[in-house]
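User: Okay, second chain of the day. Same drill as before: sequence in, structure tokens out.
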Amino acid sequence: MTFSASRKRGRPVDLALHARRRREILEVAIRLFGQQGYSATDTQQLAQALGVGKGTIYRYFRSKREIFYAALRHVMSQLDEEIQASIRGVDDPLRLSGQAIAAYLRFFQSHPHAVQLLLQELVHFRHEGLPAYFQHRRQTMHRWVNHLHHLMTTGAMRPVPAENTVEIMGDSLFGIMLSNFLNQRQRPPEIQAREVLEVFFCGLLTEQGRAHLRTVY
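Assistant: Same drill. Structure tokens below.
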């Protein structure tokens, strides 16, 4: 992949071209960070992989750290795009839930370098506030809270604290995604999504079991 960032002095910036080239830098950066790790990757390697000089990289980003965080945000944006594409036009709220979960798991299964970036942020920048993944989840949480409220309104779900439920489901999916990655598990996302729905929406206990649970815990 090569590109030239030169333009004549005084010519207006082509915003579409600038965005495309910035995206190219980030996609290569994601691959290099994923393969080599944050510490072992430098801007010279990134420039060589793109077929440009280091100066070109610095026209778009001021530092390796800035590239890394931009790459994380790019990953979160891609994840969001794929989830939204998977549920577009889906009217049934329960089917929508399964489609969204499957899309989430499928994204990380097909983008292992994205998982590497999430883990690397925890290693190298764990003292710099809320990780990018959880920032993104906080920003998009209202969609899923509204979704659960819709399920309750239609009578498909019993009344529960929606925000707490979304947090618990989100944490569980994050754990499943990491377990898939660390165990190199390649189970079909659609099957895992169905199992998640079975546990969260259908539950494990019978009515008798649930009644007993309320007396002991």
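The mean pLDDT is 92.

User: Thanks, on to the next one.
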